[in-house]
Design a protein that fits this description.
Bound molecules: adenosine-5'-triphosphate, magnesium ion
Largest sheet: 6 strands, mixed
Shape: globular
Strand content: 15-25%
Distance between the termini: 23 Å
Order of helices and strands: HEEEHEEHEHHHHEHEHEEHH
Radius of gyration: 19 Å
Helix content: 25-40%
CATH topology of the domain at 1-97 and 233-269: Rossmann fold
Length: about 270
């Protein structure tokens, strides 16, 4: 692919390490509709990879394949291979719930539980038995809220306030804290700033840059400016195909395909 062209040194550095995920000739059908067509790409440690492309081109569908979120959806057929640390994630030795726990998922619309702030973060680790005892849980909740940049704003109302009573931007950071609470390796974010204001967006973007030191992040965005600000690499999807993938600077300055160039320039989509 186009990754081999001269690129930013930071991007090159992330690719010196083996990929966390390797997507190889992935095809997906919803019934008869061929939604992903021969999609191949890698995800490297500590990188932010942005998926861009027109509505309906398969970005969310591709993201959901990575953590097997299509499992149990009727009439979905998947072909091809996705490897995580070299192992086929659809292979017989994979336990789907355990696989899913290696990922944090953040949706466009913040969706905290109608429970306390504390409970929103403690729920996952308790369910999976990741933390022993109250003191350890308290410390874990604090760490997750700090990493999500929310601790100082909520530390005095952890038990009193319901997660869904926070502002939209705060709710999204709470959802990020919740996603982090099960110690995922990869964060999958489907338009995480799509429904929040510019100030809250700036906070979340900063947070993503910070979190990418310890996690790979795949983020879907409709904002070209956002992709430019935060992504190491950009993948352009079009009608179910991954038309082009490359370092952000290259995609924005010298995309190889006419469709990607026109989309990035805001000429359609
Ligand atoms: N559960 C489903 N059943 C049937 N078709 C689906 C399903 N989910 C998505 N699709 C179809 O698959 C195609 C890709 O959808 P997808 O949600 O991946 O697009 P997207 O690129 O994320 O779009 P957007 O930018 O609008 O979120 C679309 O034609 C969509 O209608
Ligand atoms: Mg989508």
């Amino acid at each position: 692919m186009l990754d081999t062209l001269p690129n930013l040194s930071a991007v090159a550095a992330t690719q010196n390490r083996p990929p966390v995920l390797q997507v190889d000739h992935l095809n997906l059908w919803y019934g008869d509709a061929h939604a992903l067509k021969d999609v191949s790409f890698d995800i490297y440690p500590s990188e932010i990879l942005a998926f861009i492309g027109p509505s309906g081109c398969g970005k969310t569908t591709a993201l959901k394949c990575l953590n097997r979120m299509h499992d149990g959806t009727r009439d979905v057929r998947i072909e091809g291979c996705i490897r995580m640390d070299g192992e086929d994630i659809y292979g017989p030795d994979i336990d789907p719930p355990l696989h899913r726990r290696r990922f944090g998922w953040v949706a466009q619309k913040p969706n905290p539980f109608a429970r306390s702030i504390y409970e929103n973060v403690a729920y996952g680790p308790r369910l999976h038995g990741l933390v022993n005892g109250r003191a350890e849980m308290d410390a874990h909740v604090e760490t997750c809220l700090r990493r999500a940049g929310l601790w100082d704003e909520v530390k005095d109302r952890l038990y009193k306030m319901s997660g869904d009573a926070l502002s939209g931007g705060q709710q999204q950071r709470l959802c990020i804290a919740r996603a982090l609470s099960v110690n995922p390796e990869v964060l999958l974010m489907d338009e995480p700033t799509g429904s929040i204001d510019p100030v809250a967006t700036a906070l979340i973007e900063e947070l993503m840059l910070d979190l990418s030191r310890d996690h790979s992040i795949v983020v879907i965005t409709h904002s070209m400016m956002e992709a430019k600000r935060i992504a190491d690499r950009v993948a352009y999807f079009h009608c179910g195909e991954l038309l082009e993938i490359g370092p952000t600077e290259q995609m924005f300055n010298a995309a190889q395909t006419d469709k990607a160039r026109r989309f990035i320039a805001g000429q359609f989509g």
